[in-house]
Fold:
Amino acid sequence: MQGPHSPLRKPAWLKVRFPGSRGFNQVKGVLAGLRLHSVCQEARCPNISECFQEGTATFLILGDICTRNCRYCQVAHGDPLRPDPGESERLASAAKALGLQYVVVTSVTRDDLPDGGAAHFAAAIDAIHRQIPGCRVEVLIPDFQGNRDALAQVMAAGPAVINHNLEIVPALFKDLRPQGDYHLSLELLKRISKDTSKKIISKSGFMVGFGEGREDILTLLADLAGVHCERLTIGQYQQPTRNHWPVSKYYHPDEFQELKETARAMGFKYVESGPLVRSSYHAASST
Structure:
């Protein structure tokens, strides 16, 4: 019998297959050989087996140490190393070796850099376009601390999609993302959607299971719809360690389907919603 403060038992629908296929090992080997990181590994994504077996990965640039310490995140935090100037070309080489035509690039948050790492994102996009003509690139970016020039630099590089995750409902944002700013993040998404000249798709995502209520979720959806965010991912939060924020609820797959239908009714063009969904899950299908 579980006590009042015991962790919730994971339901059957959150069980995933143990990775180890040929495809999984190929992607892992390419990343290791080119000294690259993937958020799939660093954040212990539950879809790592499925995605690696399909020959896809979300590349993590600017190192594997984040300058922020969100209370739900598995990625290590502390003082990161200086950016690697050769990383962008190696990333493009890895994508080419894997035969990718859709590449997702994200980073740890780098508040220590004047532009938050925007130049590094732009370099990665440029390298991929140069080495793999016609390849579409999705970038999952931090908030750049509201630096408009930084965002403009990423947009000028011409990614197909710019994703910026809100992650948390506004009522819990300060508790879980104390170094972030909910309204600043919304403003970033608004600027992406507002600039129609570059035809860049705006995207965001969040997790449930932190203790939010239905009205909290509806507020978040309305805020994202209000800044004309086009694509959306909704997934289940899973506590990485006992030191992280506890899971308050495991949502049933039917509840995720209901959230998907609600979001579509509010105007979102594409929605991935499910217990194991993460921000880059089936990313290529959304464009």
